[in-house]
Amino acid sequence: MPRERLFLFDTTLRDGAQTNGVDFTLHDKLAIAALLDDLGVDYIEGGYPGANPVDTELFGRDRGLRATFTAFGMTRRPGRSTANDPGLAALLDARADAICYVAKTWDYHVRVALETTLEDNLASIRDSVRAARPKGREVLLDCEHFFDGYKANPSYALACARTAHEEGARWVVLCDTNGGTLPHEVEVIVKAVTAVVPGDHVGIHAHNDTEQAVANSLAAVRAGARQIQGTLNGLGERCGNANLVSLIGNLKLKAEYSGNFDIGVTDDKLAHLTRASRSLDEILNRAGNRHAPYVGDSAFATKAGIHASAILKDPATYEHVRPEAVGNRRKLLVSDQAGRSNVLAELERVGIAVERDDPRVVRLLDVIKEREAVGYAYEAADASFELLARRMLGRVPQYFDVTQFDVNVEQRVNAIGERVTVSMAVVKVTVGDDKLISAAEGNGPVNALDLALRKDLGKYQTYIKGLNLTDYRVRILNAGTEAVTRVLIESADENGERWTTIGVSPNIIDASFQALMDSIVYKLVKSGAPA
Ligand SMILES: [Zn+2]
Predict the structure, then answer these.
(1) Which of 183, 217, 303, 353 has the most CB within a 10 Å radius?
(2) 166: CA distance to ligand 1 center in Å?
(3) Separation of 103 CA from ligand 1 center, angstroms?
(4) Backbone angles phi, psi at 266, to 5 degrees
(5) Could you tell me which of 167, 173, 162, 163 has the C-alpha nearest to residue 140?
(6) What is Dmax (Cα atoms) for the chain?
(7) Ion ligand 1, residue ranges at CB < 5 A
(8) Phi-psi region for residue 5, left (φ > 0), alpha (ψ -120 to 50) or beta?
(9) How far is the CA of 427 from the centre of ligand 1 (A)?
(10) What is the CA radius of gyration of the chain?
(11) CA 468 – ligand 1 centroid, Å
(12) What's the pLDDT tens digit per position in 345-356?
């Protein structure tokens, strides 16, 4: 049986942009659109043309995308004609391949929020879809609150969907706007819709308020819908939207879907999935969800020694899909329970060749256990693990030596009477025969120390130019006066590579210093800096 085509529609640039704390620049939006286009997503919704300067500019330019770039906006306002609605005119004139209208389909909302009659709302849908026809655009209708509307007044909700379809809308998209619908309800309701609108014209737009947006989307597909809307990493207001990343993994790798449907994402592009997901976090300047299905750092991480040795024999023993398929990688965690096999597998992964019975492997394992007992957690800091291993195997040059550092924090009243806290760090470094001194101010002591440390490393400076700290996490282990501080620092470089380093000490500055040093040395090792 030939496979049916299933279409993916991304709303990261509009719905995703509703997320608390997310504010995309034009540059961000173009970068995200390029990520989606590369993956093979069919539709990219750009936002509301004319709503703000960023979106106006986005719609004003040639974006060079293969995907169907879609403008979003409302159907004509109640009591107006299509010719006399500036919002609608802007939408019709936007440089876009498709237009996605949003309309109310819940009778209660039509009366209370829109303050119009059910008949006028149907006429608005009909007129708006019709008005787009001479423009030669593909038209979609987002049926807002469709599932709640269907529960309240099924015949009216269906009438809205049918009207749009009859007027020539390519897609009628059923939105679970409040996100409270459950998968079995979605399946029943979508089935009812496909009795009046053919399933290959029906889409699903699920919000994640019950953590089931992905399940709801798949339930809609089982019931006949052939377009899925979602966002990268499930970005979206409240609890987010259906996560396109997880959906793509499921649709490509689970036989029920991959056997019956084709999507625009090829097997080759599937291997870009992890990168696309992490690139979005990069753009948002946030740490990704380690536990995200398919693409998270921990999605293929196994800790217990017994599982690790089974995985070495056959990865399928503890993995539901191959990590390489989605561009992720297997990770065997080095931990308290670790056996030799974990350590050997980790060494192999980071590219350190060593004989299986090399006595240094046992010594390395002992050191790891000792260090983990005092608070180190190498499973969360693989760059520090790699350095530790390389040092024990005698393969890390002594690039430079920090002979002394001094950090001070001062609170005072400034010239305009404000109380300010200023941090300053001075670092003395020996690089070969050069003795260097750098000083820097920072917004905190660790920031000042970091800036001073990276200010001048002599001949190594060019190697660390692109180095950036992207995350800094502090945890206090065991309470009371004996507390020690564990610092994890995530760094990134100009090639988009990321690594995490660790420091542990009763003193937070010292713990931070260890992690900073590891980060710099790791970068020098990776860059092949000469000793
Ligand atoms: Zn939405």
Answers:
(1) 217
(2) 24
(3) 12
(4) -80, 170
(5) 173
(6) 85
(7) 15
(8) beta
(9) 51
(10) 28
(11) 34
(12) 888 888 888 888
